[in-house]
Amino acid sequence: MAQELAVRPQILPPPTERYTLLGWAQKNLFSTWYNTLLTLFILVLCYAVLVPAFTWATDTARWEVIQVNLRLLMVGLYPKEQVWRAWLCLHLLAAIVGFSWAIWVQRRRWLGLALLLAPLPIAILPPTSVFARLNLLGLDVFALVGFGAGHLGGVSLRRAAVWSWVLFFPLVIVIIRGFTLGTGWMPLVPTTQWGGLLLTFLLTVVGILFSFPLGVLLALGRRSQLPAMRLVCIGYIETVRGVPLVTILFMASVMLPLFLPAGTRPDLVLRAMVGITLFSAAYLAENVRGGLQAIPRGQYEAAYALGLSGFQAMILIILPQALRTVIPVLVGLFISLFKDTSLVTIVGLLELLGIARSVLAQPQFVGYQREVFIFISLIYWAFSYFMSYLSQRLEVSLGVGQR
Amino acid sequence: MTHKIDDFVMEKAMGEPIENDRIIICRDVHKWYGNFHALRGITMDVKRGEVIVIFGPSGSGKSTFIRTLNRLEEHQRGQIIIDGIELTHDVRNIERVRMETGMVFQSFNLFPHLTVIQNITLAPIWVRKWNKKKAEEIAIQLLERVGIPEQANKFPGQLSGGQQQRVAIARALAMQPKIMLFDEPTSALDPEMIKEVLDVMVELARSGMTMVVITHEMGFAKAVAHRMFFFDEGVIVEGGTPDDIFKAPKEDRTKLFLSQILTH
User: What span, in angstroms and rounded, lies between the C-alpha atoms of A324 and A318?
Assistant: First the structure.
């Protein structure tokens, strides 16, 4: 008996489940009679929706409206001879994405390849200009250069990658706005000429960059020990959350000049940026507060017991953990901020939706609503999904919910 | 009967001519939570190098008391002097005291977003202002002392409870404190991990560290404690050497409590 007990249990590999395609279909699609019914119903539905949609898109739709107005939709009234500056920003972005990809993502080769190939079909399409073709190819070249640099440096370049992202956005603003007066190589382009997708991006980026620190400060203020500070923050957050964004945009564009000294009129885009930032900071503050509340008291106590000051404990211990837990919510917030920028049409700015509507207002394009709206919807979707995907990657690499 | 004990301790304290010999001095410490009187006049002195064990039922105020020693809890009456620094509202004093005292918690409270070595070097780098290299060298030495140098680059979540608590001890020691406070360090551990933590604590006690330990590990108390204090309802019911307490407890409450935790 003792001999038998001494035998150690064998270590076995887990059972493998291998299916044929049919086996898989049977298990997942046709396992029961109601499952079968559901599967068939959905197949019919897909057919009924997709086939007409496809026929319309390839046959009936007149996409030339997009082709003719592409530059308007992308950059609005931005001067034609300065459009290279928008491309320059894209090239920079491609290089940084390639660089970061090499450092953080590494695996997922297929997705990387798909991203790399994405500009090519557009470049091949007949209506694309030579200038745009070269630039689309340039995107790939820059992405590959960035990837190569990241690949050579490896993980040691992490800090450089973070800094490249941090510096990228202010740089974009400088490039788009320009800094030389008159006829220099980068003349100032007044914000009244910014438009289309470019303006949508700039509003989003500025909104995110400024509402993030402001929101964090508001969240900390709301949890402050000082009653005055707390009251001000609660008052701000609750006021802003009680007012629709449209109202805030109106206030920013119509009321703000009333409070400022006579003669100073900050431009419309700046006012919209301020409005969006102030609005989303309030929501961000509430989300960050949720993250802060999820941090156990023991973390504060351990930090204080080690002699860290309140400020050090917050910056080194509490905020990194709190922000990490709210990444999914924050990205959700940023996605809705991206889409909410379409509301600035109301104060007369021509961002993507605004310019689309003004394109449709031209007599020769009456009746092209479907094409135009589907096109801009696809753009909104693509970038929203991209942000969502980034946040998932970020969660995985930061180990949300694991550590 | 509690004043008797206070007198006993006070006498001992008064008998000591050199103030400097006593690293912790508590005089009539009171603490309220709202209307609840959690500490009702604790008077206790600890000499340099002394190992003090505090035990008592839950809610007896022992945890509150140890947390007043580094001002995680504020006392509302009485006096606490740590290594010649009185704990008052003065923030500089509080910071100095916290630099002199290390604390180990029941639930470890490691920082989950930092690796083991980052956990240990954080305070030396930011509070003591050491350079990273020096802090890491000392951290590695401490990890060797607590027996887990190979875990330096893991995250706390990847370690067992016993390992986490040993990292927590190393983290507290990295600040080179003069006093170590332990708040039930083994209560959250699985039985087979208690010993590895107690071994580290015994070694620390024998190295001459001043320690105040809340624990119900009576084996530990017998092995290294110089004095023991029994807390109940916010007062020190009885105090003395482990021999006094185990062999001849004077108070009925002490006897009852000891019989309850020692019968198994």
Answer: 10
Higher-confidence residue of A4 and A9: namely A9
On chain B, the residues whose CB falls within 8 A of the CB of A291 are none
DSSP letter, residue B107? T
Comparing alpha-carbon positions, the chain A residue that sits nearest to B157 is A403
- Judging contacts by C-beta atoms under 8 Å, the chain B residues touching residue A308 are 122-123, 126-127
Which ipTM did the prediction report? 0.89
- Are A214 and A277 contacting, i.e. CB atoms less than 8 angstroms apart? yes
Q: Give yes or no for residue A35 having a pLDDT over 80.
A: yes
Q: pLDDT tens, B195-226?
A: 999 999 999 999 999 999 999 999 999 999 99
The torsion angles phi and psi of B45, rounded to 5 degrees, stand at -120, 145
- Report CB contact under 8 Å: A305, B98: yes
- A308 and B101 in contact by Cβ < 8 A? no
- pLDDT tens over chain B, length 264 residues: 344 444 444 444 444 444 568 999 999 999 999 999 999 999 999 999 999 999 999 999 999 999 999 999 999 999 999 999 999 999 899 999 999 999 999 999 999 999 999 999 999 999 999 999 999 999 999 999 999 999 999 999 999 999 999 999 999 999 999 999 999 999 999 988 999 999 999 999 999 999 999 999 999 999 999 999 999 999 999 999 999 999 999 999 999 999 988 876
* B124 contacts chain A (CB < 8 A): no
* Contact between chains at B126 and A299 (C-beta distance less than 8 A): no
Residue A378 has phi, psi (to 5 degrees) of -60, -40
Is B107 touching A (CB cutoff 8 A)?
yes
B118 bridge partner residues: none
Half-sphere exposure of residue A291: CA atoms within 13 angstroms, side-chain side: 27
- Separation CA A192–CA A354 (nearest Å): 13
A371 CB neighbour count, 10 Å cutoff:
20
Following DSSP, what letter does each residue of A122-160 receive, concatenated? HHHSTTS-HHHHHHHHHHHHHHHHHHHHHHHHGGGGHHH
Sheet architecture: strand order including B227-232? B101-104, B179-183, B210-214, B51-55, B227-232, B235-240
Nearest chain B residue to A318 by CA: give it: B111
Question: Quick one: how far is CA B86 from the chain centroid?
Answer: 18
Q: Evaluate whether A400 touches A325 at the Cβ level (below 8 Å).
A: yes
Q: pLDDT, tens digit, for every residue of B89-107?
A: 998 999 999 999 999 999 9
Closest CA to A71 of A239, A195, A166, A228: A195
**Are A403 and B107 a contacting pair at CB < 8 A?**
no
- Alpha-carbon dihedral angle through residues A354, A360, A364, A369, given to the nearest 10 degrees: 150
| β-strands B51-55, B227-232 pairing | parallel
For A324, nearest residue in chain B (alpha carbons): B113
Question: Taking the model in full, what pTM does it have?
Answer: 0.81
Cα Rg of chain B, angstroms: 18
